[in-house]
């Protein structure tokens, strides 16, 4: 990441980025974001990303009506070109700049800020290891399935897995159902059939997940961790990593045979 794009159409150095310390975004993580894969400066799955951004923003009461889909993604393409990240990843974030209310006294101000950043794609690991996270996900949470800036729970689970030497971790909900990775969605095969968790598990409705399900015959299921332990293959998906095949799950080597899903993006 080298530059940022703000709502006033100014591309400036990242050091100049500012966020009101008393805004809901800064105090409580009141924001929504999406990570977009970029190819030749063009966003992949643009309509899916915009639909989820709009839906999540409406759910959290963040007004993004001042920004059109065309304006936002045109800015993304221009920034990718300026940063020489023509085939990288971009993040679009809408911040709720409302102040006043619970903490600050005085008059209330409202507004929404837009931040777009880009970076190069990360190299895919030759050996990708997966474990089970000890931190349960609450499927009844109002933030379940929402990609908000309040992302510390996901990062805490991810960092815990990293400290144990794993590349990602499977999260389970309060009913013992597989939900997904800390930062991604999950698919697996068993006896030649492809599966992924249902959205009511608390699973994030990922854009890459949706694309995979449109491309391949796939069953949405409520699955226990034992289903993954007995899976033939496991795949993780997100805009940031694309489609990654898991090599090892909790010390068990998995099939390395090629599957069409790995070349989808």
Sheet/helix structural class: alpha+beta
The CATH class of the largest domain is identified as: Alpha Beta
Order of helices and strands: EEHEEHHEEEHEEEEHEHEEEE
Question: What best-fitting shape do the alpha-carbon axes yield?
Answer: globular
Quickly count the helices. 6
How many strand elements? 16
Radius of gyration: 19 Å
How many structural domains? 2
Strand content: 25-35%
Q: Low-confidence runs (pLDDT<50, min 5 residues)? A: none
In CATH, what is the homologous superfamily of the largest domain? Answer: D-amino Acid Aminotransferase, subunit A, domain 2
Properties at a glance:
5-stranded mixed β-sheet; D-amino Acid Aminotransferase, Chain A, domain 1; 265 residues; 6-stranded antiparallel β-sheet; D-amino Acid Aminotransferase, Chain A, domain 2
Structure explained in plain terms:
The chain has 265 residues and is an alpha+beta fold. The chain has two domains: 3-120, Aminotransferase class 4, branched-chain amino acid transferase, N-terminal domain (D-amino Acid Aminotransferase, Chain A, domain 1), CATH 3.30.470; 129-263, D-amino Acid Aminotransferase, subunit A, domain 2 (D-amino Acid Aminotransferase, Chain A, domain 2, Alpha-Beta Barrel), CATH 3.20.10.10. Helices cover 23% and strands 29% of the residues. It is built from six helices and 16 strands. The mean pLDDT is 90.
Question: Could you give a short description of this structure?
Answer:
The chain is of the alpha+beta class. It is 23% helix and 29% strand. A six-stranded antiparallel β-sheet has the order 2-1-6-5-3-4. Strands 9-8-7-15-16 form a five-stranded mixed β-sheet.
